[in-house]
Design a protein that fits this description.
alpha/beta; pyridoxal phosphate; binds pyridoxal-5'-phosphate; Lyase, Ornithine Decarboxylase, Chain A, domain 1; 12 helices; TIM Barrel; nine-stranded mixed beta sheet; single chain
């Protein structure tokens, strides 16, 4: 069981809303910091543990700055994410470029920033060398195929577009070594939003065995294995969070069993966790605009799937609470909707909630990762502001809400008052 909380009381929230109208996303700095510290602590046994925060989960430099201050780096998959990390003063080997189908300019920017590059395919060795040259540290993304079971978000490994197959992997290290690369890592991300702690230990075992095999076959002593992201969060109150201490200890055992006897004892452990770092500590706050009773009882919010796409995209559960009615009996059944002309624009379907009135503030929980970040402008809907609840209790605007000017900024239409300035 996981209790769903919100860090502001009703009066504090109303104060915030006076200044920043709903909808908005708000993040809890203190909770994010404590959470990162917990992750580092769970792996404090490792010769070196690195967390590269997956920027795509919450691409805001104010949040990345917190990551940096806590000792984390950044996992990037685009030029924009590289630039956001750079803005937050994260650079060099604190950046991991784990992208796929990568364009040349992205490799080039990563090289300029001194990033570690994690290649998604054997053919990318030539492409990288030709277009950007090799980085100081090169890594390859392993797709182990059928030896690992998948889940709904990431699918089965053998159906996933990511990574090199086993034999390609060994060959890739040999090729890169022959071409002069000296420092290497290994990456694998086969799970997403996984709540079973043992899944991470099993992945680590697979990775460690592969690291030993790479050493035997190529003579390369890897500097790190990167277990990727994929630590799930308890979206549903009935879920339990992943026990990071248990995972850390479990991986430690496997490390002692496989890595140390093979003479690879300095091997660092890396992760690219995104969801588990910010997910539970970000909320989408909305106001009820309408109640509509037809075949069902619909509550219409001032936000929509442009602000949080996960329920519509994956049918994902996000817990919902009504401010001031947290302890009220859930004796009404509602569909909680947004305003898109898409019938899947629903934050919840047939959800038991307390009686809701127009004007109520609605909190959608666990929106701190892959929430605002997945926003889009379909139907001309604008993305909301992002706020940071700081450790001292003040609230800072870390991204303003989009305006129509932003939306029209790329149009080039004669006579349009928004016409691009030439
Ligand atoms: C999405 C992604 C992550 C982060 O995943 P979370 O589920 O947010 O932990 C890390 N690495 C790669 C390569 C990814 O694509």
């Amino acid at each position: 069981m996981t209790k769903k909380t919100f860090p502001l009381n009703q009066a504090q929230l109303e104060e915030v809303i006076k200044k920043y109208p709903t909808p908005f996303h708000i993040y809890d700095e203190k909770a994010i910091r404590e959470n990162l510290r917990r992750l580092f602590k769970a792996f404090s046994w490792a010769p070196s543990f690195r967390e590269y925060f997956a920027v795509k989960a919450a691409p805001n430099p104010a949040l990345l700055k917190i990551m940096k201050e806590e000792g984390a780096g950044a996992d990037c998959s685009s030029i924009a994410e590289l630039e956001l990390s750079h803005m937050a003063n994260i650079g060099g080997e604190k950046i991991m470029l784990t992208s796929n189908d990568t364009p040349a300019d992205e490799f080039q920017r990563a090289i300029e920033l001194g990033a570690i590059i994690n290649l998604d395919d054997i053919s990318h060795i030539d492409y990288l060398e030709k277009n950007a040259g090799f980085p100081e540290v090169l890594s390859f993304r392993y797709n182990p195929g059928a030896c690992i079971a998948g889940n709904d978000i990431i699918g089965r490994p053998e159906e996933a577009k990511y990574g090199l197959m086993h034999d390609q992997l060994l060959q890739a290290y040999k090729i890169a070594k022959d071409r002069g690369v000296k420092r290497f890592g290994l990456h694998c991300m086969v799970i997403s939003n996984e709540l079973h702690s043992d899944a991470f230990i099993n992945t680590a075992r697979l990775m460690f065995n592969t690291a030993v095999e790479i050493y035997k076959e190529t003579g390369i002593k890897l500097e790190f294995v990167n277990l990727g992201g994929g630590i799930g969060i308890p979206y549903h109150p009935e879920d339990n969070a992943v026990d990071l201490e248990y995972v850390g200890e479990g991986i430690h055992k496997v490390y002692k069993e496989i890595i140390e006897p093979a003479g690879l004892g300095g091997l660092a452990i890396a992760m690219e966790s995104g969801r588990a770092i910010t997910g539970p500590y970000g909320w989408l706050v909305s106001t009820v605009l309408h109640e509509k009773k037809t075949y069902k009882d619909y509550i219409g919010l001032d936000s929509c799937m442009a602000n949080l796409m996960r329920p519509a995209l994956y049918g994902a559960y996000h817990h919902i609470t009504v401010v001031g009615k947290e302890d009220a009996i859930c004796d009404h059944v509602y569909d909680i909707t947004g305003s898109l002309c898409e019938n899947n624009d629903k934050f919840a379907i047939d959800r038991w909630l307390p009686e809701i009135s127009i004007g109520d503030r609605i909190i959608i929980h666990d929106a701190g990762a892959h929430g605002h970040a997945m926003g889009f402008n379909y139907n001309g809907k604008l993305r909301s502001a992002e706020l940071l609840l700081k450790e001292d209790g003040t609230v800072e605007l870390i991204r303003r809400a989009e305006t129509l000017d932003d939306y029209f900024a790329t149009l080039n239409f004669p006579g349009c008052r928004y016409q691009m300035k030439k």
